[in-house]
Amino acid sequence: MRFDIITIFPEMFGGFLGAGILGKAVAKGLLDIRIHDLRDQAEGRHRQVDDRPFGGGEGMVLMPGPVFQAVEAVRESAETPVILLSPQGRLFNSEMARDWAGRRQVVLICGRYEGVDERVGLRLASAEVSIGDYVLTGGEPAAMVVVDAVARFVPGVVGKAASVAHDSFAEGLLDCPHYTRPRVFRGEVVPDVLFSGDHARIERWRRRQALAKTLDRRPDLVGRRPPAAADRCAAATSRRLWRPSSPVIGRPARIEAACRRMTSW
Ligand code: ADE
Predict the structure, then answer these.
(1) I need a surface site. Which of 62, 84, 159, 191 has the fewest CB within 10 A?
(2) Would you list the domain boundaries of the chain?
(3) 168-263, which class in CATH?
(4) Which fold does the domain 2-160 belong to in CATH?
(5) How far is Cα 241 from Cα 255, in angstroms, rounded to an integer?
(6) E strand segments, 139-252
(7) Which pLDDT tens digit goes with each residue over 123-133?
């Protein structure tokens, strides 16, 4: 899969693309990530790509000309998603990541915090996307987040496909708790069920924990998905599994309340 990233700070991407799982995926040829300096499309000696906003106001705005030219120079087909990263965009999520991972190419335009000429969002980008309700100094860190999240869905990038399948959000729920050695750490013990050897029981426990954590921290996620019968049952039995002292699960009273609501569906 190919990413084309259009930025005025190409040097920001060096370390990000050279290390870790992404670095390996690039080395294996699973990902082809090309960084393009927007200033290469600029006219004039000063390589200017931004200008003052019409109507007055603070800061500079990226001009449409260089951005259109940069995208048109790299886009392979009219089907290629062209994503403008900006705080005004729709919130990025796992479904978008999964969808884009199935495409041959994705083009990412890194905006600047002052702004990008509106015609880029209107006529060039197929989507304007934000990674969260805060403002970054530019779209570059957001582009890295998007590349990373999309790449995980590209077959072969993450060693075990099963780990992607179980991750937070994969089924509309947060991930379950994970433990490793030692069995007791500063008085906190690993739940016994994980040593039972009973895989079906462990799976049920994980599901209930994921549900409890989601109800506690992100009830909005639970509300969006149809309540599977298995989850109603899990919610009903989860109360017994919460340990009030556990910093992982947090406020049991709120979970109790959410759980009661859920079982009355
Ligand atoms: N550029 C600045 N802030 C951003 C955000 N929250 N998401 C995406 N791009 C951005």
Answers:
(1) 159
(2) 2-160, 168-263
(3) mainly alpha
(4) Alpha/beta knot (3.40.1280)
(5) 11
(6) 184-185, 188-189
(7) 999 999 999 99
